[in-house]
Amino acid sequence: MSDWGEDEYTENAGQPSAAADTPRSPGRVFGLDIGGLAGEYVDAAVKASVRKQVNNVATAAVDEALTEELLESLRERAGQAAVAAVTEQVEANEAADEAQDDDGEAEPEESLYYGSVDEFVREYLRNVYRRAINGRSRVWAARWWEYDEAVIRLEALWRSWEHLRMDPSTGMSVWWRDHADHHMAVLLDPDGPFSSAADADENKSKKGQPLPYAAPPEGLFPDQRQVHEPKDDVSREEEPEPPAEEWPG
User: How far apart are CA 70 and CA 73, in angstroms?
Assistant: First the structure.
C-alpha cells in the first residue's frame, strides 16, 4: 500500500503487452514481403538492361556484317523472288481464265439434249404436260412463239430442264416443283399471257391430248447444238424423231 491508499492490481500489471511480445519478421510491413518485392523489381530491371545491351550488340554486329556487297546480293535475290512469284500468279490466272472460257463456250451447248426451246416444247413439254384446254379454265396458244412472256418462260423451262436432267437423283423432281408447275400455272391461267388466244379453235385440246402446237417460222429458233460446229460441204442427214414413249424425264 502506498501513501495514497491501496494500489489497484490488475492481472496484466507489470507484464509486457501481447503486441510487444510478438516478434516482427524482418522486411515485412502489414503482411507484405518488402524484401521479396524489391528483389523482383531488381531482377526485372537487370533483365531489361541486359536485353537492351544485347540488342545494341546484335544491331551493331548486323550493321557491321551488312556490307554493301551483301546488301546488293540480298536486293538481287529479293527482286528475283518477287518476279518469280508474280510470274507464277499471272500464269495461274491465265490458266484459270482459259479453262473458264473453254467451259463457257463448249460445255453448255455440247451438253444440250434439245437444240432449241421450240424442239423442247414440240418434242417434250406439250406431250408430257397434257391438259384439256377449253379456253375457260385453261388457255394455251399453239403459236406460243408470238407471245414474248411465253417465250421467256418456256426458254427458262428448257434451260432449267437441261441443267437439272444431269442430276439423276432429284433433278427432275426439283424441275417439276420449282420450274414446270410454277411457269405452266402462269401460262395456262385464263388471265395469263395467252388470254387473248382463248377463243381460237386451234388453241383447244381435249383431255389427254398434247398441248396445241404450230411450228414457228423457219430459222426463228436455230439449233444451239450446231452453233459452234465447223461448217463443211457435207450435208448431214436428218435424224429421225424419237417415238413418243422414249421422251426422257
Answer: 5
